[in-house]
Design brief:
globular, alpha/beta, seven-stranded mixed sheet, six-stranded parallel sheet, single chain
Amino acid sequence: MYEGKVAVARQKSEPLEVIDARFEAPRAGEVLVKIVGTGVCHTDMVVRDQGYPVPLPLVLGHEGAGVVEQVGAGVVGLAVGDHVVLSYGHCGRCGECRSGRPGYCANFYDRNFKGARLDGSQAVCDAHGHPLGSAFFAQSSFGTYAIATERNAIPIRKDVPLELMGPLGCGIQTGAGAVLNALKPPAASSIAIFGAGSVGLSAAMAAAAIGCTTIILVDLHDDRLALAKELGATHGINGGKEDAVEWIREITGGGADFTLECTGNPKVLAQAVDALRIPGTCGLIGAANLGECASLDMNTLLFGRTVRGIIEGDSVPQVFIPQLIELWRAGRFPFDRLVKFYDLADINSAIQDSESGRVLKPIVRPA
């Protein structure tokens, strides 16, 4: 057993509780990672509020980065001392995983939202030995340590600031990958991104890197729109003050080639579809509560528009996360401008700052 601390969601919509905890040694196919930083993501809050009914109590956190402390039996490609970014869980064996689409793993929900290992066991308990829900996104990284699998612990180079890299495992990867891997807009095309949080801004930076010449951000916060322009956006629209769809049509001469919905709001999704040219493609990456429905005029799709969901940026983390690091090192993907660091003891302040929009990407550090 290893000892440390974790942040636990005990009750629906209540603040997380930071407590002493014990961590199991890794089992076969697992690694124990000493966490140096974990990003706070919207999905953590969705689960805390039971929009996804993952059993509580639960150790949240799914954008961890740290150092491999111990490896379980049969693990290959990872060694003690490796620097890793923790991404999402997947089986590695189903047809989608084997065809390079692990975000659409046949067992994605159980491996990320079961709140336990697949056999129902837990890797973490409190100081009195009571089990705590774990294995959230195959990591539960709001703590001193995390148990991950060899497939979702991604080794990275050791000459970059490890505490900064955790958000590449989910939110940053999702936004950038939606553009670079899924939509793949050609050079000189137009894209409108709804939601200028860390996911939307990552998409904007990726669009700038790939050569889009019209990059429109829609948000309710003027300061985020100003930052978007510094990061490569060509236009910013405050959707609370202006008709975003009409402005996008005006800017693009009829509609954007691509749109991206990052908010999880059904009304915003309808706007993102309406803002497309004919034909055009809308990517949906915003996480809504299970059962949330959107209403679309069927004729908006009949004329060749496409709406497609995108999980984790259509990425293969072992390939894509190192690529994002290289873009960052080259100065072409400055995601470090989105972050603010907090101690684990202040995690509820980090969450509040994220929910209020004051901070784009909080990163909590255990020590």
